[in-house]
Amino acid sequence: MNGDTLYSIGELARQTGTTVKTVRFSSDSGIVSPADRTPAGHRQYGDDALARLELVRTLRDLGLGLPAIRQVMDRERELPEVAAAQAEALDAQIRILRLRRAVLTAVAKRGATPEETQLMHKLAGLSGTERRRLVDDFLEAVFGSGRPGADTAFRGIMRSMTPELPEDPRPDQIEAWVELAELSQDPDFRDHLRQMVHAAGRAQQAPPSRHQDLAATVRHEVAPALAAGIDPASPQADPIVARLVGLCGDGGSVEPRRRLLARLERMDDPRRERYVQLLAVINGWPGPQRPGPALGWSVRALRARVER
Length: 308
Description:
Blueprint: H1 9-16, H2 20-28, E1 36-37, E2 43-44, H3 47-61, H4 66-73, H5 79-110, H6 114-124, H7 128-143, H8 152-160, H9 171-184, H10 187-202, H11 208-228, H12 238-245, H13 254-267, H14 270-283, H15 293-306
Antiparallel strand pairs: 1-2
Helix pairs in contact: 1-2, 5-6, 5-9, 6-9, 7-10, 9-14, 10-13, 11-15, 13-15
């Protein structure tokens, strides 16, 4: 044997950290072959069998099945090719596991019912085409069958409201998608956004995308009042309210105040804010600034003047 060490089945098992049963199975399957036999007929194996079994163990630990391992050992397929296929299969498994983890995490956080769990599982497992169909249905419900998307401003709005889950999403993006998809199916929320879109359209201002500008203006105008502790119903708030009302047109009548109040009240809906937050996570956008106390102050100030 040219000085090669010979190993019994038991010794080979100990050397490779496997079991005698595994070595015997590998030998019977032709993955390793005995180099010799003892006078009593017991199989003995050389260093090549030791190397092959160590490789087999490595490949099994990496998840390769016996048929693929046999092809590699018999040089029917190149190891890089088999490794690439295995990596691709693992990628698919990882995506599935991430989806399952996202659903289970959401179920645990919300204390979801069995019915809610089934819905979340369905939403998490949608294909890219199915997700686009769900989003298109949502936007159709919000913008109406007239599809004002023909207008450049509305196209931008619809694009700004469209979630685009990456091909290889992070766990938090999957969780956000499940929650956003569920929220988008709420008929009351759809109707809420539709009112926002149409009201803003009547005011000849772009809806949700411009709502970010309106929210920024509210924060800017109201910040000094908040810092000074001005009561929104007090006369000291009148100049600030007048500037805010100017966003909706002539501030000399009650009607513009009502329109602005309605817009701000719709903006103050926590579902709309949550949708924007989830959208930012899914699309990898910077987190949106929250209107915060300024929005509540403005709503109280306008309401006090409309109801007088």
